[in-house]
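Researcher: We're teaching a course module on how sequence relates to structure. For the next exercise, students receive a sequence and then see the predicted structure as tokens, so they can try to spot secondary structure elements on their own. Here is the exercise chain.
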Amino acid sequence: MGDVYHDFGSDLQLAANGDLLTVSSVAESRQRVLRRLLTNPGDYIWNLSYGAGLPGQVGQLVDQTAMAALIRTQMYLEPSVIHDPEPQVSVSTFQNGLNALIQYVETDSNQETTLSFKYQPNP
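Model: And here is the predicted structure for the students to work with:
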């Protein structure tokens, strides 16, 4: 059985039968990776060191190589990410935001997975 379906920044969703919608395998992995990357350390009260803190990088001078390394390091903490081959990470910034493109292999399905996101805090 999978986890409860929960996209970062969104509400929980209901399945057609009225139960909470669940997610597993690749979709669950994407949700977990995104949640880890967009959570600031100290914000998750049950594990204060959890999270990459990418939102805290917005508006700062960013070393894109260092940010890609941070993302890769955080991804290795997720059990759904295979370490070999290593995740491929590309990061670019724009005024008050960042783009990330991540390719990795998901553990359960052994499927190559692409996760891309644009993060821009609400003005």
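Model: If you want an answer key for the exercise: The longest helix spans residues 25-38. The CA atoms of residues 4 and 22 lie 4 Å apart.
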